[in-house]
Design goal:
With 731 residues, the chain is an alpha+beta fold. The chain contains 18 helices and 34 strands. The chain is 28% helix and 21% strand.
């Protein structure tokens, strides 16, 4: 076992070095700086995790996939090493079972599994071993050698299509296994049929109906079914040929006919190499919107890998003719591209802000897609927790994005904020009491089911603020005033005796037997403990500080947040990687490192930011792990914005908090203009901020200024720390 780990470690190091070398040799090709394997490796070291993971646990680190995809495309063509895992691919695995065509990085999708095979196999035994030393991935391209079948498998993709190229050893019969009874979602029904001498089509029915149409360069001889017990696979056999087997497959969430239309539009007459090159150029164009100078090669790899990962979700669901299947399961055609619902609880903090900056047209269509869903249900949709479509839409509107029906969006968000039975559970209680109560439970544990009342109260208060911003912009004074009164509701959770946000019972008493270090999934807090929840008021941080006796008292509380050691007996699978009680492995407290700004100690924030960027990205035995789930790009986007020195502290507002960049210079393309972010000097302390030589008071700059294309200069210097404590995570 130790020898295997050593070999895998060396392979991981070699892979990282190759990417560093490529980035150094070809600085104009930013795709060479991207490592799609980042986030696929496990995080097992108890020092990195913060506790000793139970046996057979895989800490939720990264959960990304290395396969071929274009930005925000319908297709993500990637290997599967384990169905039911976060993204289907786990770096430590040794067997590939299929290549699937949809992915997100959560426990869903992974549709239309296909694997090239030859020789003997059965319905329960057809996977192939592989080795990382014969595997590679680049934006828009993936390759691996399948040992069992001696097949070199290459994958690339377009927006709606996947392109497979399988080079078999000479003499072996060429076959494909389609395991349509499997995906990361429950399969209700599936179908496969031949559609011509060189074509087949079908679908998988899960929550959605995923249709496909595939064409091959070789003639199909048979399509057969293999069964073994309850397992069933389909086997497509092809004519003998020394040519590689090439498979072009179009997807559609409408019909197989539309899948063929997508295929014809994007792949007709194109070779594998042409499609691969086009995919690389598409990514190069996007990555080139952020050009950095300076920094180490590792920092560039982490930066561009994170930027790449930030633009894979949400995914397109409309076809080339504009048709899509809407929320009512009806096929419609409208004047916008229809996208999946973003993972809003995670990504509203930074990822959707980054999307609005670099891909405003996509953002407009994502918002209109959400409106279309909301008009069917009567409420603006959310994801998982909170009502953060409010922050996403308000922030986008205030950044100047107007390509959607903002009045419809506002009306839906207002219903969310005031009407029971929709997006916000317990909204009536929240409006009547000013908080959401916590039920009395004698001995709550990590997985105790409850309301997550503290987290909901804090989040709803912020969501009310976001809707209020839209109300003000649209001239709805009455509702603006009503909503602004609700934005202080977060204060109702504050317990002066502990200086933390604490659950309240229905009668107004605080929950007894309070342990602020214990993490919960739903009891009082959502995927967090009290420390990781108590400083969330990005719309009113001065008001939060005023709950304490002084700024110094608040600073001392922050010091405790970042210094009280994590109790390694407290284990929650997606709460990992700590600086004190602060958890970078999950999203709820990702804005907390910036809080020292508000007590005039910006340099203490920077020490923590630098430590996070240094230690919690590219972790683990292989240097390929993240400290927690990437969550559809949130973890990655945090790195991108923090590294260039502007962070969306309050994403509902069009303002950014300025930090010390990792890089000497960043050229940021915003629409038709290029904004330059320049660092002058070294150290933690920001001494001066100017924009086009005009000094900025404070630390915030608006997006309206940045998009003019000026130069943001951040002057820094070293600070005498002899009289103050600077918290870091240096090992």
């Amino acid at each position: 076992m130790r020898r295997t780990k050593t070999i895998n470690f060396r392979i991981g190091v070699v892979l990282s070095l190759l990417i560093f070398i490529s980035c150094t040799k070809s600085p104009k090709q930013l795709t060479d700086c991207v490592n799609p394997f980042l986030g696929t490796a496990p995080l097992a070291d108890s020092v990195d995790v913060g506790y000793k993971p139970p046996r057979d646990w895989r800490v939720w680190a990264g959960l990304t996939y290395p396969g071929a995809a274009l930005p925000n495309a319908m297709v993500q063509l990637s290997p599967i090493t384990e169905f039911g895992s976060g993204a289907g691919y786990e770096y430590e695995d040794t067997v590939i079972y299929a290549f699937t065509h949809t992915n997100k990085g959560h426990w869903n999708l992974c549709h239309i599994p296909i694997l090239p095979v030859t020789g003997d196999f059965t319905a329960t035994n057809f996977g192939s071993g592989f080795s990382h030393d014969n595997e590679e991935a680049h934006p828009g391209y993936y390759r691996v050698f399948l040992k069992r079948y001696q097949v070199n498998a290459e994958l690339t993709s377009t927006t709606h299509c996947g392109y497979h190229k399988y080079t078999y050893a000479k003499g072996g019969a060429k076959k494909l296994v389609l395991n349509l009874a499997r995906s990361n979602e429950h399969i209700r029904d599936w179908q496969l049929e031949q559609a011509g001498t060189n074509a087949f089509k079908g679908f998988q029915q899960t929550g959605d109906k995923v249709c496909f149409y595939a064409e091959t360069n070789l003639a199909i001889t048979t399509i057969e079914t293999l069964k073994e017990g309850e397992k069933e696979i389909s086997v497509v056999s092809f004519e003998d040929s020394d040519e590689p087997l090439e498979l072009k497959i179009g997807l559609s969430f409408v019909s197989s006919e539309n899948a063929k239309m997508n295929l014809d539009a994007e792949l007709a007459g194109k070779s594998f190499d042409e499609v691969r090159q086009a995919a690389s150029e598409t990514w190069e164009q996007l990555l080139s919107k952020v050009r950095v100078t300076g920094g180490t090669e590792r920092e560039k790899m982490l930066f561009y890998s994170s930027l790449y990962r930030s633009f894979l979700w949400p995914a397109l669901r409309s076809d080339v003719n504009g048709e899509f299947t809407d929320e009512n399961h009806e096929v419609v055609k409208k004047d916008f591209r229809y996208y999946t619902l973003p993972s809003i609880w995670d990504t509203y903090r930074n990822k959707l802000v980054l999307l609005s900056m670099l891909e405003p047209d996509v953002t407009n269509d994502v918002i209109q897609s959400m409106i279309d869903r909301g008009e069917k249900s009567g409420f603006m949709p959310t994801f998982f927790h909170g009502d953060h479509a409010a922050a996403f839409i308000a922030g986008s509107y205030l950044r100047g994005l107007r390509g959607y029906d903002v009045k419809s969006a506002y009306n839906l968000l207002l219903r969310n904020a005031t009407v029971e039975g929709g997006t916000r559970p317990y909204i009536t209680e929240y409006m009547e009491k000013g908080y959401i109560s916590t039920p009395k439970v004698e001995k709550p544990h990590v997985e105790t089911k409850a309301k997550a009342g503290v987290t909901k109260t804090l989040e709803y208060a912020y969501d009310d603020y976001a809707v209020a911003l839209l109300a003000k912009e649209l001239g709805d004074t009455v509702n603006y005033r009503m909503l602004m009164k609700c934005t202080s509701n977060y204060k109702n959770m504050f317990d002066p005796s502990t200086g933390l946000m604490r659950g309240k019972l229905e009668n107004g008493d605080f929950v007894s037997n309070f342990n602020p270090q214990y993490p919960y999934y739903e009891y009082m807090y959502r995927e967090a403990n009290a420390w990781q929840s108590s400083f969330f008021a990005p719309h009113d941080t001065p008001g939060l500080i005023a709950l304490y006796s002084s700024k110094a008292a608040f600073e001392n509380k922050l010091d405790s947040l970042f210094s009280i050691p994590w109790n390694d007996n407290y284990i929650a699978r997606n709460v990992s990687s700590f600086i004190g009680q602060y958890c970078h492995g999950n999203q709820p407290d990702h804005s907390f490192p910036f809080l020292y700004y508000f007590v005039d100690k910006q340099e203490k924030s920077q020490a923590i930011l630098d430590s996070i960027m240094s230690h919690f990205y590219g972790m683990g035995e292989h240097g390929l792990a993240l400290c927690g789930m990437d969550d559809a790009g949130e973890m990655s986007s945090w790195y991108v914005l923090s590294a260039i020195g502007i962070y969306s502290y309050s994403p509902a507002d069009p303002d950014y908090l300025v930090a010390v960049p990792l890089f000497d210079k960043t050229e940021l393309t915003l629409g038709e203009n290029v904004c330059t972010i320049a660092k002058e000097g070294t150290g933690l302390k920001i001494s001066r901020i100017t924009y086009d030589d005009k000094e900025i008071k404070g630390y915030f700059i608006s997006y309206n200024e940045l998009k003019k294309g000026g130069t943001l200069k951040i002057s820094v210097n070293k600070t005498d720390h002899s009289n103050q404590k600077i918290l870091t995570n240096d090992k």
